[in-house]
Amino acid sequence: MADLAVWQEPSAEEVMGYFEGLSNWGRWGDDDERGTLNFIKDEHRAAAAKLVKTGRAVSCARDLITAFGDPGASAQMFWAATGECCKKPEGVPNSKFGAGDVDAAVEYIGMVYHGPNITHIDTPAHLFWKGQTYNGKPASRTSAEFGATWCPVTEMSQGVISRGVLLDVPRALGLEAFEPGRSVTPVELQQAADRQGVEVGEGDIVLLRTGRWHPSNFSGNVEKLSDDPKHWHAMSGWHPSCMPWLHARNVATIGSDYAQEAMPGAYPGIEMGGTIHVISLVAMGLPLIDNCDLEALADACIEHDRWEFQFTLAPLRLVGASGAPINPIAIF
Length: 332
Prior knowledge:
17 strands, 18% helix
């Protein structure tokens, strides 16, 4: 891409051209379903393991709240059996899960994990563009009857493990956090990488911190935690022009503390709504890690004075799913 020192914001037409220009269709064969995860090789996993010096582990996921009525709830828990049945009047039977003096707690949890709240991973099966998904396969490869038969989350059954790199862009600019609605440019990505002394490279998992969960972004407004579409109008994230920067470095996957897209978008009215998702998932085959909580990770990076670490995530092996809730772990 052009020299960042003379970078100018691209036109909407140029951004639309990213789909063809950054496409990985056919790069690893017409039957490839792994996309940019192909960049992670055994040597990348081995090198990431060598980054572990102290053994300190940091979760990058949000708590998944299941309490009915809680403004931060994005899932619902239904109890099939609880400990309430353990002290019962004589003659009242055990639950169907218990016998004698033994009983059990059994719950069912339902959720829609796609959206701006639950920490999850998107596979290319999550999105379509003009009736197609990654590698030119028809959108109909995801159906109500069979689920995702192309690029399902089970393509990640062995986990995703590589070097993680945190780009703490607000702090590189002297801020604790961005206000919602900020688009981060490739110039700012490079500035953060230079300030932190890291070079993003092949097979890396790149995390963008905008400060969504920093205390300064709340001011007591608990409703900001809600998975309600009315809050989608103000999110910080990648400017679309970051995609050539990431593509040139052969990164394996990216994540942020929002759902990737900056809202309102940098190009109102552009035909390609959800620009980052379309370019990443459909054109590049680049999985997306949405809605991380990167505050503890940023603190650990500052304490250790390094912004690289072993990073691992293991999605549930949900047959036919276009993603999964995850608990990504950084290890120093």
